[in-house]
Each structure stands twice: as structure tokens, then as C-alpha cells.
Amino acid sequence: MSLSPLTQNLIATFKILPGIGQKSATRMALHLLERNRDGAKKLAYALNEAMNLVGNCQICRNLSEQNICHICSDTRRNSDLLCVVEGPLDLFAIEQTDYHGYYFVLNGHLSPLDGIEASDIGIDLLVKRIKNGNFKELIIATNPTVEGEATAHYIAQSLTDVEILITRLAHGMPLGGELELVDGGTVMHALHGRKPLL
Ligand SMILES: [Zn+2]
Fold first, then answer.
1. Measured in angstroms, how far is the CA atom of residue 182 from the centroid of ligand 1?
2. Residue 83 phi, psi dihedral angles, 5° rounding
3. Separation of alpha carbons 101 and 137, rounded Å
4. Average pLDDT, the chain
5. Are 164 and 135 in contact (CB under 8 A)?
6. Which end of the chain is more exposed for a tag (fewer CB within 10 A), N or C?
């Protein structure tokens, strides 16, 4: 390769991003070097700042620069409700709804094949928080995947001796969807999760 060692190193570093292969990495590296060095310096600075300063909230494990994040320190929220999600983006999605309780972010899901066990995703912390707290309902909003379902079950099993209502997000028909166009698994979930009309 005729590119300089530092250019090659930059390309190799871009490849750590998900979905970025040799071609895209080369394009990005050359774009920054040839056309946008100021932007690249800002990118480097932002990366450095975020990597050094963003940690996890000690209560909910969400990404935060503070020890206690802005959600956990907000006393106006509904202290009856705790919602468990797999990651920060899921929390963001729930925040777009009218939910106004607290959260726990697993930052993953159980995956024995990858060596990810309960303590790796903070389930021990979650159980402790619930046992020490006064939550009335735990909403398990892990994804409707095999791993997400297994994680939901594991959490529910860990709380059998605790008096708390444990609910799972309903899965079902998309709004505006037509029955004949929706996949079988989704229709089955929707059927099992049916509710009285009146
Ligand atoms: Zn928090």
C-alpha cells in the first residue's frame, strides 16, 4: 500500500466502528485528511472527552458524566415505577412515551454462549435496588428476542420472594398495520397479549 503509516493506522482505527470495512474506513480517513481537518480535530476532541468523562450512573447504569444521572436525581418522577431496558437507546425510546418512572439499564442481555452472565449486566444491582426500594411495579422492557426473553425470565425468577408487580412490554400489531401483512410470530404475540375491549 502506498499510503503513509499514520494514514494506514487511521484507516485501521476507523474499522473498529460497527459496519465499517476497509473501503468505508479508507474513504473516511482520506476525506478528513484532504477536506476537513478542523472537523477531524473536533471529532478527536469529542471522542477523547466522552471516553474520559462519560461513565455509568451508579444507580441505573445509564451513561452519565455524573455519579448519579439526571433521571435518577429527578425527584418529580413516579417513584412507583421502575423500567428495565437493555441499553441507553431503549431508555431513550421509552422516554419518548408518557412513562415518567425510573430506569435500570442492563447494557446487554444474558448470553451464556458469549459468557455474559447475570452479574455482567447488573442483575444483582437491580435486585438489590428493588429489595431496598419501594417500587410497586417493575416493567421489563428487554427486547422480544430469544436473549431478551431469557433475560426477562431470569429477572422475574430472581424476584419471586419480593412483593412487586412484574410486567412485560406487550408485543403485538404495529399501529396502522394489516393482519395479513404482519409476520406469524408477531400475530401470535398479539393474540396471546389480547385485552378486553370494554
Ligand atoms: Zn441513573
1. 36
2. -120, 125
3. 10
4. 94
5. yes
6. C
CA of 26 to the centre of ligand 1 (A): 38
- Cα(101) to ligand 1 centroid in Å equals 12
Residue 1 has pLDDT above 70, yes or no: no
Contacts of residue 30, defined as CB under 8 A and 6 or more positions apart, other chains included, come to 7
Using a CB cutoff of 5 Å, list residues around ligand 1, an ion.
57, 59-60, 62, 69, 72
Pairwise CA distance, residues 9 & 71, whole Å = 39
Q: How far is the CA of 129 from the centre of ligand 1 (A)?
A: 12
CA of 96 to the centre of ligand 1 (A): 17
| Cα-based distances in Å from 185 to 151, 173, 192 | 19, 10, 11
Distance CA 78, CA 80 (A): 5
Q: For 142-196, how does the pLDDT look when each residue is reduced to its tens digit (9 = 90+)?
A: 998 899 999 999 999 999 999 999 999 888 888 887 888 888 888 888 888 888 8
Instruction: Tell me if 3 sits within 8 A of 29, measured CB to CB.
Output: no
